[in-house]
Amino acid sequence: MNSVTPSTTGSSSGSASRAASAPDRDLQAPAWVIVARREILAKLMEKSFIFSTVITVAIIGAFMGISSYLDAKATTYTLVTTSAAAHDTAARLGPKISAVDDKVRVTTREVADEAAATALVRDEDDTVWFHEGPNGWTVTARDEVPSALVASAEAAIRTDTLERNAAAAGTTVSQLTQGSALGVDILNGDAERQGFAKAVAFVLAFLFYMASLGFGMMLAGSVVEEKASRIVEIITTRIPVRQLLAGKVLGNVVLALGQMGLYLGIGLIGLTFTPDKSYLSSVSQGIGWFLAFFLVGFLLLACLWAVAGSLASRSEDLQQTAMPLSMMLMLVWFSLFLAKGTVATVLSFVPLFSAVLMPMRILQGGVPVWQPLVALALSILAAGAVVLVAERLYRRALLQTQGRLSIRQAWAAAE
Amino acid sequence: MIEVQGLSRRFGDVVAVDDVSFAVHDGLMTGFVGGNGAGKTTTMRMIMGLLALDGGRVTWDGRPITAADRRAVGYMPEERGLYPKQRILDQLVYLGELAGMSADAAKQAVMEHLERFGLADRAGDKVEKLSLGNQQRVQITAALMTNPAALILDEPFSGLDPAAVDSMADLLREHQARGIPILFSSHQLDLVERLCDRLVILAGGRVVADGRADDLRHQGPARHRLVLDGDAGWVRDLPGVHVHDVDGSTALLEIGDEVPGADQALLAEAMRRGRVLEFSRIVPPLSEIYREVTA
After folding, report:
1. Which domains does chain A have, with CATH numbers?
2. Among A13, A15, A231, whose Cβ lies nearest the Cβ of B82?
3. pTM over 0.80
4. Which terminus of chain A has a smaller tally of CB atoms within 10 A, N or C?
């Protein structure tokens, strides 16, 4: 058996008055950095964490891929005709239909009679019978007439007929319609952009909710783990409790921000492959603000999650001690849908709510820059206050190992 | 030297530790003995600064103990546990770094200890994969690897098999030889008797015995055993001799100090009456002392 010779690096052994022989901490990273590093590394080596991150990235990627594929995909319809007039018109309409809607392409096919035409329509997909109707032209389809085709064909036929009638009357379309143009200008930006902003706000709020809940539960769980296994007793005889709390909170903030950045980055890259990329510049400002609010909001929440963990003695207690926090997050999440008008404006200044509502308002446009700055300052103040309160609760609850504690008990507990 | 003076701690209405004073001397192993709820763990936690003191003080070499002193103490809590899902080497290095070691020095110290315990090849395993005895070895490594300036160990031997107890005892003796104070609690009195120079016995939150193990066993009235070749009934009549039991030729007696020289008088009388086969002092085992002082 090998022997360990306890060497005497720090102290002179045998001396009666021996000073504490801790090596010089100045040479080392501060304790909170060591704690934060362990939080991060331990999490990065956890299979479930890696797995869920990879899955989420895959889902985002697939979603982006599918939507850009669907956006880009054009459908080719076959117009079956049974007369020379219909065939000529269909052939002439083809390019015009595609000009109206670039996702609609048209080919033509001439058959002998109505029976052959309806047989084709019945048997083949994306095939319609184009023929003369009582008042112009008729499209006969199997189950339902493709709306994209009808809309673009209608416009194309109208233009085509207008051109031909104008030519017959010895004039042109532009002469006929001169002075009739109606310009459109919407003060709130256009509706499509609004819809896009809403979708982005929804995604950001969802990310905030999921990250706060997921990383929060993880942090609370690791606090309980340390408490239940009593390793916290070893740790807190070596470093101050404040450093332990700071390290754990910061480690989780880094992890959460990293994961968030990864998801948003992939989302934004994916966006550049879709037609929605024209909106990219308009949302990037909102996303930038979101990250700032996320950072402060998550910091505040992380301290509270650590307290929730310290109030429990076993992981079974955690559901209950974390209940108020989960409820609050739920409320923040629902505020995105429920808060309207003035309520939304006021709430967008309230810490935590601001993390969701302020980016939404910024994305919708028309928010002066002082508003997010004030909201952010309020959040930072709130986070500072929460850190102070949480530290006291955490420190006092950490070594109480008899069952669950209420916040009041933890506040009043002797150290 | 670590000294506690007048240490007290209440939990609600319960007085867990009541005016406890004792010293843990340099280079000596002090056993901390007492039943469940006697206040051992609470006292150790107060020494380590994990619990606030309701009264009294803890000193290190005569001055109030500081956070830096405590960081240099190898401490092993009672209900021990490490991160169950983290690799052994990683978390021991982490704990070493928190105690102020560099990562390299910590790694080296961990591997030396694991090798000694025959666990070097398990360094990359998660703690939860180890048997309870091996988890205990990892735990003690966490306390010893920092080359501590003192050791405070709460039940370090519980759950260990005899071979592991021996190897742990050897390890503690090596640290003792460095001249550091060592305090450990245990329920196993035979072990305490074998290892400890000094003994502090706690009952109901109070110190009921404190001193060198030998002194404790020799304190109180001396008991003797006398074996003769004839009947020993006559010993009842001698002054200064209190008879516990006479069984034919064998007598168990207590010789008080109210009659000087009573033991010599007894022996002389016995030799006058016949052959003395045995006359010996009985040193009670620690377990008996323990039962007496905690009764």
Report:
1. 31-67+190-412 (no CATH), 75-175 (3.40.190.10)
2. A231
3. no
4. N
